[in-house]
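Homework help board

Subject: predicted structure for assignment chain

Our instructor gave us this sequence and asked us to write out the predicted structure in token form, then describe one feature. I got the tokens but I'm not sure how to describe them. Can anyone check?
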Amino acid sequence: MPSAHSRNTTIVGAAGACVAAIGALKVAKDRKTGTRGFDLDDPPVPGSPEFGRLLESLAGSPVRHGNRVEVLKNGDQIFPSMVQAIESAQESIDFSTYIYWTGGPVITGFGEALVERAAAGVEVSILLDAVGSFVKIDHKLVERLRQAGARVEWFRPPHWYTLNKTNNRLHRRILIVDGHVGFTGGTGVGEEWTGDAQDPDHWRETHLRVEGPAVRDLVGGFQENWAETTGRILTGAHLPELSAFDDGIDVQVTRSSATKGSADVEELFYSAIAGARERLWVTTAFFVPPDAFVEALCASAGRGVDVRILVNGPEIDKEIVRRAGQRSYDRLMRGGVRIFEYQKTMLHAKTLLVDAAWASVGSNNFSNRSLALNSELAFSLSDERIVAQLEEHFHDDLTDSEEFDLAAWRNRPRRRRAVERVTTLVRDQF
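My token output:
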């Protein structure tokens, strides 16, 4: 008899083929969710009270006042902060991620901290995406976590009777400790996320540490997927009373749902693009914009907004996604949008900066998969100090990037154009 591990590995491998097949069948259906666009009459400026009310009405994202938010850049800042929080846990740890892979001492230390707290009696709830994590995770660690008392669950493992959901994955990255301290952004757990983006083996990332009322919304993001998977709703220590800080800032958490596709993140992005007055700076790992967003970005540049897109260059881990995104470069540059490709390593950060006082950091890429198919979470904030910090990071990343020139781009080899055209058949699945 094959082991449970080998049987499950075979199942996950088959799931990859299922995802591709289902994706091909669903392209027409899924495309309409991520490409329809919207008409906004007199769109409010992101960061204004009017924009907060708009987002609250569209996505049910309440404005939370009085939060402390810390920007964490790259693994050297991200993992020590998360591990410190885990080690301080007294009652509960809620953790969900798309990717949990193996790694060296830093990644091992992250897992050991979870094991130790579970063994100490802390209620540890871990939700891992069955497609993103299963093959590369250390399954001995999973067993140790369970033996220590942690509950480890797989989100939407592939079964023949759930094939309609196989293409909708858990892409949120959420860690909450004692219901008081939360982390979110783009970080996965793997050796690639350690270090300081110093070489191609260590990726560029942005994550957030949060305290205050907005942590309740991060718990809500975890609860949504946990309840579906386990049939259990978390209460008690997971939902403590949260007080606002006098020196805190306003934030909003926008969640999308991995069911038939959600427009919440789509509406957030579209409204932010429409409301930009001075600048719109996008950093994203995967940039495969639906047609409606290409038009919106060009319209924003056409009214004088400084629109810049920072995306992956040759170090991207999925070259086909890069080529699919390049299909839009000509239209964007003709519309006045500036495009930069990051050269140093894999760029995994996902940020959106609008004007001087509003930003969004999350798990969502600028592609149909994030806008319409996956469970995602975007954390938006209104604060000039933090936006200035993210602006500094953007400028630093530009020094390691190359800007595209429209004339040179139009002279690219015909074989590259052919590859770009071929990706049109599957670009809505990226």
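Reply (TA_rk): Your tokens look well-formed. For the description, you could write something like this. The radius of gyration is 21 Å. That's the kind of observation they're looking for.
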